[in-house]
Amino acid sequence: MSRLPFFVYGTLRPGEPNHDLFLLGRTVSEVPGRLVGAVLYEGPGYPYVVEEPGGVVCGELITPSPQRYGQLLLVLDRLEDYAPGDPANLYERVAREVRVGDGTRVETAWVYVAAPAVAARLRARGKLIEGGDWRGRGC
Q1: Exposed, middle or buried, 66 (CB in 10 Å: 0-12/13-18/19+)?
Q2: For residue 1, what pLDDT band results from cuts at 50, 70 and 90?
Q3: Coil vs helix vs strand at 98
Q4: What does pTM read for this prediction?
Q5: How many CB atoms lie within 10 A of CB 118?
Q6: Other CB atoms closer than 10 Å to residue 55's CB: what's the count?
Q7: What ranges do the domains of the chain cover?
Q8: Distance in angstroms (rounded) separating the CA atoms of residues 122 and 100
Q9: pLDDT (0 to 100) of residue 136
Q10: Are 103 and 61 in contact (CB under 8 A)?
Q11: Which SUPFAM superfamilies match (predicted)?
Q12: 15, 8 Cβ separation under 8 angstroms
């Protein structure tokens, strides 16, 4: 499995409650980024990314320290209720391109996106987060 960085867009972003619990002291870099081809929907205290052409989601590209990568991957999968191949997943962990900085640099990162059944429910009756930024500031 690739040791990709993570693109975070909700409670794991710097300044949000889960950042300090799970990421503080375990990363080597955290830089602003944008996920193109996705939108955000409100969840119960946290957002969901749903892949959608034309959308943009704001967040950070988080690069874990190498010695903590395996442990952090397990912890984040557990936080996101993700288990490979489990049909009950709320999220799926997928590799996607993320634009970093001024958008000229592109990195491949792990992103937790809404699982297909969750995405279908959100598209049908979810509340879209305008501007793609859970904090409401825009990219």
Answers
A1: exposed
A2: low
A3: strand
A4: 0.94
A5: 19
A6: 16
A7: 6-128
A8: 27
A9: 81
A10: no
A11: Gamma-glutamyl cyclotransferase-like
A12: no
Residues shown for the chain: 139
The mean of the pLDDT values for the chain is: 93
- Segment (H or E) for 26: none
Cβ atoms of 5 and 62 within 8 Å: the answer is yes
Q: Which runs of E-coded beta strand occur in the chain?
A: 6-8, 27-42, 47-64, 91-100, 105-114
- Token readout for 17 is 């409650």
Domain at 6-128, CATH from 3.90.1330.10, 3.40.190.10, 3.10.490.10, 3.30.428.10: 3.10.490.10
Record the tokens describing residue 138, joined without a space: 């825009």
Q: What is the DSSP letter of 101?
A: T
DSSP labels, 62-91: EEE-GGGHHHHHHHHHHHTT--TT-TT-SE
pLDDT by residue (tens digit) across 91-112?
999 999 999 977 788 899 999 9
For residue 71, give every residue at least 6 positions away whose Cβ sits within 8 Å of its Cβ, in sequence order, or none. none
